[in-house]
From TrEMBL:
Keywords: Signal. SUPFAM superfamilies: C-type lectin-like. It holds the Pfam family Lectin_C. Residues 115-233 form the C-type lectin domain. It comes from the Eukaryota. InterPro entries: C-type_lectin-like, C-type_lectin-like/link_sf, C-type_lectin/snaclec_domain, CTDL_fold. This is C-type lectin domain-containing protein. Residues 1-17 form the signal peptide.
Amino acid sequence: MEYTVFLLLLSISFGCSCSISTSFLEDEQLSQCGQYCFSAVQTCLSQLENTLKRVELCEAAGPSDILGRIAQLEEIGRNTQAELLQLKQQMSPTPPGNTLSTEIGEKIKRNFQKLGSKLFYIESTDRKTWHGALQRCYDLGGHLASFQSQEDIDAIDGKLKEYSGYWIDVTDQYKEGAFVSVSTGLNATFFKWGPDEPNNAGDGEHCVELHTFEGAPVMNDILCSHRKFFICESSLI
Ligand SMILES: *[C@@H]1O[C@H](CO)[C@@H](O)[C@H](O)[C@H]1NC(C)=O
């Protein structure tokens, strides 16, 4: 008669693990082993008993206490996370300022095109007042175009619609006849007036447009409230 006794007692929590695997071929051998098996099982049982006692103690501590502990750990976790984030920001090689300029840089790349030596955005669909155009150019990441030379005008000439007016950054709305470039905040230095301009017609023409009525684009002073196309420029790349 052959039979196998396999006994495995395993305690998960406290690392008590004992097993007895004994194979008996004869009844005599079973009786010989009896004493050994008994003591081994006895050891295991007493260890299991200890384990159960500890588990009972643990349960007696109560679930509310455990939940409290978990809440504490979560709190610590959250605080650590916040501190790490703060440290990361402090140590970051790109401070927030740079992140912002990167965003503006992306916007400029999207909106502006290189024409001649400058970056321009030419609006030939949406007409705005001079002040509306001023705002729109800022929103796009630039400012109303500030023409400094004939080369600047030549660079955009082919992109303008015929018989149209485009706002630029020159105005004398602060002092009649004192044309300033609002982009630089200084007196405008380059002018390409059309015939008999600027004439301040009706005593109210304080904003300057580049218009294409005469073929080649020339400057003209006109009412700031007129709705016109506009040209923006960006100095950033
Ligand atoms: C700007 O122009 C005005 C008049 O056109 C003049 O009075 C003033 O001195 C100029 N300012 C500068 C800084 O050149």
